[in-house]
């Protein structure tokens, strides 16, 4: 969602900074700079996994930071800081209108995902929404959410009929590990074309608005 269908606008980094400040990691310090670099590199990963890495061996601090992050992000959403990527809603509606099944996934907790969907008026936009806890808790870069989407919707009988779109390297790894036929990186979020291709992207798009056309061409080619 964030960076692919939802404009991030630096909200993840802002929420991260607010969260780690509660654990004594101040902006401008060497530790904050190091941790922020890891957050940027792991965009798309389950947030609790990120905090477990940052506070290795200290589960209490990881859980505290994760809860503070979700709370801070929720406040930003409530303050009206949440906007769709231009044309994203229309792209999802087009895909569904063509008979495709659309599942929106996130590395956020369910409460944050629901807050974003409500803020955008997207509660009923997709066929299904998933967060890491809905698929065993591991999140990306594991293939779990992609495969859970297939199992829950029963929309295909072959993993190669799945298309995964995302803005991060972890999105690409999740899609390739699930065996998706199309793994499309988009340039509206965290990572650039080189990073997306290095992580296994089969295509790189300017934005998710190009996905319906890509799928139509892919089907025509087959």
Account of the protein in words:
- InterPro entries: HAD-like_hydrolase_sf (IPR050155), HAD-like_sf (IPR036412), HAD_sf (IPR023214), PhnX-like (IPR022468).
- Keywords: Hydrolase.
- GO terms for molecular function: phosphoglycolate phosphatase activity.
- This is Phosphonatase-like hydrolase.
- There is one protein chain.
- With 222 residues, the chain is mostly helical.
- The chain folds into two domains: 8-78; 83-221, Rossmann fold (3-Layer(aba) Sandwich).
- Helices cover 49% and strands 10% of the residues.
- The protein starts with 5 loop residues before the first strand and ends with a helix.
- The protein is globular and about 55 Å long.
- Helix 1 packs across helix 2 (30-41) and helix 1 packs across helix 4.
- It has helices spanning 11-21, 30-41, 47-54, 59-78, 88-97, 110-120, 144-153, 169-178, 193-198, 211-221, and strands at 6-7, 83-84, 103-105, 128-130, 163-166, 182-186, 203-205.
């Amino acid at each position: 969602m964030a960076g692919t269908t939802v404009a991030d606008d630096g909200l993840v980094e802002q929420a991260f900074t607010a969260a780690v400040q509660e654990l004594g990691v101040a902006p401008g310090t060497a530790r904050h700079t190091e941790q922020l670099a890891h957050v940027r590199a792991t965009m798309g990963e389950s947030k609790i996994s990120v905090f477990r890495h940052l506070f290795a061996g200290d589960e209490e601090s990881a859980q505290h930071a994760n809860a503070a992050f979700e709370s801070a992000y929720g406040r930003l959403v409530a303050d009206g800081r949440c906007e769709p990527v231009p044309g994203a809603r229309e792209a999802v509606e087009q895909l569904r209108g063509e008979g495709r099944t659309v599942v929106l996934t996130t590395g956020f907790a369910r409460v944050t995902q629901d807050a974003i969907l409500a803020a955008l008026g997207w509660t009923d936009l997709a066929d299904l929404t998933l967060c890491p806890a809905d698929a065993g808790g591991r999140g990306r870069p594991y293939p779990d959410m992609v495969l859970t989407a297939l199992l829950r919707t029963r929309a295909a009988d072959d993993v190669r009929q799945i298309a995964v779109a995302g803005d991060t390297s972890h999105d690409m790894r999740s899609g390739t590990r699930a065996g998706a036929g199309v793994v499309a990186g988009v340039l509206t979020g965290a990572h650039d074309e080189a990073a997306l291709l290095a992580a296994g992207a089969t295509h790189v798009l300017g934005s998710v608005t190009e996905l319906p056309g890509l799928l139509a061409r892919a089907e025509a080619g087959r």
